[in-house]
Design goal:
Length: about 140
């Protein structure tokens, strides 16, 4: 566990996103599912982007997915210098097994080894007492 203070930007928790962040704090992943059409929705929304229903529920998901696209950052962004320590780092858009798409950082693998079609799983980085950040890692590399 990294005991230094977490200095990267933290998400803003709103009433809409609170169930999601509450779940990551438990090291679980819940996303919205539409009660009308059954599709999973990420990121949190007030209504279903597929059918317009406002009848959404929170459902636990596997945290497993397949890389759809990835990009590697090699220079630090001006507004978040704390990311400089992580360079280079890779962000992937992941097709989750439940049919929604989510993005996040991919760790425990060299940037050049992150490939489209690679299987990944979510794990959670405890940033603060209140926030755990979902991060992807290769499915093969269990710790
Ligand atoms: Zn729907």
């Amino acid at each position: 566990m990294n005991e230094r203070k977490y200095e990267k930007p933290l998400p803003e928790v709103t009433p809409l996103t609170k169930p999601f962040w509450d779940s990551t704090k438990r090291h679980e992943l819940v996303v919205q599912r539409c009660k009308s059409c059954g599709r999973y929705i990420w990121y949190p929304k007030a209504w279903c982007p597929f059918c317009g229903s406002r009848e959404l529920e929170w459902a636990k998901v596997s945290g497993l997915g397949t890389v759809y696209a990835a990009t590697t950052t090699r220079i630090v962004a001006g507004n978040s210098p704390a990311w400089g320590e992580e360079l280079p780092y890779t962000i992937a858009i992941v097709d989750m097994d439940e049919g929604f798409r989510m993005y996040g950082r991919v760790v425990d693998v060299k940037p050049e080894e992150v490939e489209v079609g690679m299987r990944v799983e979510i794990y959670f980085e405890d940033a603060t007492e209140e926030i755990a950040i979902p991060i992807f890692r290769p499915l093969e590399k269990k710790k």
